[in-house]
Amino acid sequence: MTTTAPAANRALNPVAKLVTALVIAAALVLSVDWVSALTALVLEIGLLIALRVQLRPFLIRSAVIATAAALTACTILLYGEPSGTVHWHFLLINVSDGSIALALATFLRVLAIALPSVFLFVDVEPTELADGLGQVAKLPARFVLGALAGLRLIGLLREDWHYLGYARRARGVADHARLRRTAGQAFALLVFAVRRGSKLATAMEARGFGAYPTRTWARPSTFGGRELALIGAGIVIAAAAISVSVATGAWNFIGTR
Q1: Residues 15, 121 within the same domain
Q2: In angstroms, rounded to a whole number, what is the distance separating the alpha carbons of residues 93 and 104?
Q3: Domain check: are 123 and 164 in the same one?
Q4: Whether residue 201 is found in the same domain as residue 231
Q5: Pairwise CA distance, residues 78 & 84, whole Å
Q6: Sign of the C-alpha dihedral, residues 9, 14, 20, 26?
Q7: Residue 116 burial (CB < 10 Å; 0-12/13-18/19+)?
Q8: Can the keyword Glycosyltransferase be found in this entry's annotation (predicted)?
Q9: pLDDT of 97-121, one tens digit each?
């Protein structure tokens, strides 16, 4: 049994989602403090609920982001520049008040920057994004269609990797030296990808892709009030995060570090 994505999120133009994520990220990279990141996270949860995002795919993808954020924070906690009271010291490891605060800020900031991209693009089809970039963002059709074609072929890399492994095992060259086998197989995969890309480019040129300065699109990509409201919500989140951080005195502009 399959389920369809909620209309509140899926009906939005992917370009509006991209702009919203970029606005939030641009505001959060200006400062390294936990107040602005936490403020943005709280407001992003509200946006997530308003868009009625499916929880299961969102939680699966956000688990990877949370793991990466935790590992980054752990590294900063142990090896960050010490300041204030040092709670633990061992060789190059220094856990201090400053490293704890910076680790917390980094953890929240990675989540606040990455999570909007996760729940905004959880149900976006590559073709819909290409339609939006070509019709709304007015990017060159040659670039958009080439990127779409390359994105569509990413799924074949996994199959090629398995087939290469089977072929090498059949020839008896993959039984020993696992590191060397992996390096050789990765190089062969790269060669396959380059050859496939060349063939795809030739086929697209033969079908007239890029032959004319303008082109038609099979499906129109609309941009209206809902998209403007989403971008406005992103601007509000960014402005609120900065305002709360400045008001509490936690603002720490990256240019002053």
Answers
A1: yes
A2: 17
A3: no
A4: no
A5: 14
A6: positive
A7: buried
A8: no
A9: 777 888 888 898 899 998 888 888 8
Residue 214 lies in a domain: no
Residues 54, 113: Cα–Cα separation, whole Å = 19
Q: Which amino acid is at 223?
A: F
With residue 1 as reference, give the H or E element that holds it: none
Q: Which residue has the tokens 């936690």?
A: 250
What pLDDT, in 10s, does the model give residues 72-103?
888 887 877 777 777 777 777 777 777 788 88
SS3 state of residue 242: helix
- Rounded distance between C-alpha atoms, residue 59 and residue 118, angstroms: 9
- Listed residue (222, 200, 203, 211) closest to 128, CA to CA: 222
In terms of Cβ atoms closer than 10 Å to its own Cβ (0-12, 13-18, 19+), residue 212 is exposed
The answer to whether the predicted template modeling score (pTM) of the entire model surpasses 0.90 is no
Helix residue spans in the chain (DSSP H): 7-10, 14-28, 34-51, 55-79, 97-120, 126-135, 141-152, 154-170, 178-206, 225-248
The two structure tokens encoding residue 168: 């090498």
CA distances to 27, 74, 213 from 15, in Å: 19, 34, 22
